[in-house]
Write a structure and sequence with these properties.
Blueprint: H1 15-24, E1 26-29, E2 33-39, E3 47-51, H2 59-76, E4 84-90, H3 99-112
Parallel strand pairs: 3-4
Antiparallel strand pairs: 1-2, 2-4
Helix pairs in contact: 2-3
Amino acid sequence: MKNYPFPGIYRLTKKSEFQRVYGGGKAVRSQAFTLIHLKGEEDKPTRLGITIPRNYGKAVRRNRMKRLLREAFRLQRSYLTSGEEIVIHVQRGAEDLSFKEVYDELASLLKRAELIRVCKD
């Protein structure tokens, strides 16, 4: 089995980092997720933080959604502008989404937030 890492340099981990994004970021909403993003330093990679309320379900259910979101983000990371700090807040409508639906929903939010890098030919 291949190892597809998601190292710590791509994660928001501290409470102060989440608060900075929540306080000064711009939000884009869908039925399943809210994406909040804040422009960080250009020379650093885009980083992701995920928040899921406890009333979403038990830990197994919350952890599954985090895994799906991290994988969807990892697959789209190369297309994103650098230096962004992104927090995804999971809504109650996301309980039964498949990976494809999570991937498509995240791609849609990233496009609406204008975080996808445009390639010039």
